[in-house]
From TrEMBL:
Role, per record: Catalyzes the NADPH-dependent reduction of N-acetyl-5-glutamyl phosphate to yield N-acetyl-L-glutamate 5-semialdehyde.
Gene3D superfamilies: Dihydrodipicolinate Reductase, domain 2 (3.30.360.10), NAD(P)-binding Rossmann-like Domain (3.40.50.720)
CDD domains on file: AGPR_1_C (cd23934), AGPR_1_N (cd17895)
Biological or metabolic pathway of the protein: Amino-acid biosynthesis; L-arginine biosynthesis; N(2)-acetyl-L-ornithine from L-glutamate: step 3/4
One GO CC term, this protein: cytoplasm
Organism of origin: candidate division WOR-1 bacterium RIFCSPLOWO2_02_FULL_46_20
Localization per Swiss-Prot or TrEMBL: Cytoplasm
Pfam family, one: Semialdhyde_dhC_1
Catalysed transformations (reactions): N-acetyl-L-glutamate 5-semialdehyde + phosphate + NADP(+) = N-acetyl-L-glutamyl 5-phosphate + NADPH + H(+)
Protein name: N-acetyl-gamma-glutamyl-phosphate reductase
Similarity field: Belongs to the NAGSA dehydrogenase family. Type 1 subfamily.
Amino acid sequence: MIKAGIIGAGGYAGVNLLSLLLRHPEAEVVWLISEEAHNGKKISELFPHLTEICDLACGTLADVGKLAKKVDVVFLALPHGMALDYVPRILKTGAKVVDLGADYRFSDEKVFKKWYGVEHKDKKVFAEAVFGLPELFRAEIKSALLIGNPGCYPTASILGLAPLVKKGLIDMDSIIVDAKSGVSGAGRGAKQITLFCERNEGVMAYSVNNHRHMGEIEFQVGRLAGYPNTRVTFVPHLMPMSRGILATIYSQLKTENLKLKTKDLTILYKKFYKDEKFVRVYDTPCTKNVSFTNFCDIGVAVNEETQTVIVTSVIDNLIKGAAGQAVQNMNIIFGLDEAKGLEQIGVFP
């Protein structure tokens, strides 16, 4: 039985992670940590849907050192910059780490500092981190001690782009990602932008040209393509729904690939992901089809008049975009079937 601790259990990603681990046949949640205001409170007080299901009380970050010694893996779901102070300490106890935040998603310190404005204090630990997108980096994940769990927008975008860039089919300077997210992606904290009256019956773009996930998409797509100067136009939007991400991705076919049709790329995508349990390829992906699951559903089409490839990629931002992918990574690093505990079917309608 894998013993696990969760830091950041009071947030949306943290509580979804807890829910998955409570149902996992080979995992046991030993302790929870949340913000100072939650110290001593039962998790069921913060989330009443867990009443009589989980009554673990929340500790605080001051307890990390002693608590980490009691578990095999620690999950962190903290705002960017905070994990840097705790991950090195946790690793010294022998526990493995899956960080759902942004602090260990880049293998280039300069790129991380550009997007997050923070210096890594422990260069050795930084160098050990593996980007945890299993469908693309499984071999590295297997032997990792520290996983940088991908962001939600990057997960949908990178999986949507990977077959095109790995095969060298598109102009790398032409990538546009138009993405929509449910409001839970903004976290549980109170903000004007996420108030019901602000978001209901309306859609808005935000962080145009400077959303931090743009840097993550550029970095990892460039890494896949062997094209480190990749630039992506990325525009996120908030939708009046609780959960889900739809990334619509546009790019231009290279001149030598202009004969490719929709059916050709559909075959390519199905072949590329044929062994991937959590990627499905079909014509019209919809966020409803992946709600509460670890699936990424992808559709691809070619506009033959403009030589534009159009990819649609959908995930549940809290599962494949956060907690589910973290569990998938845990399964891999502990040698389990990576679908263990993630077999749930989507809730529809």
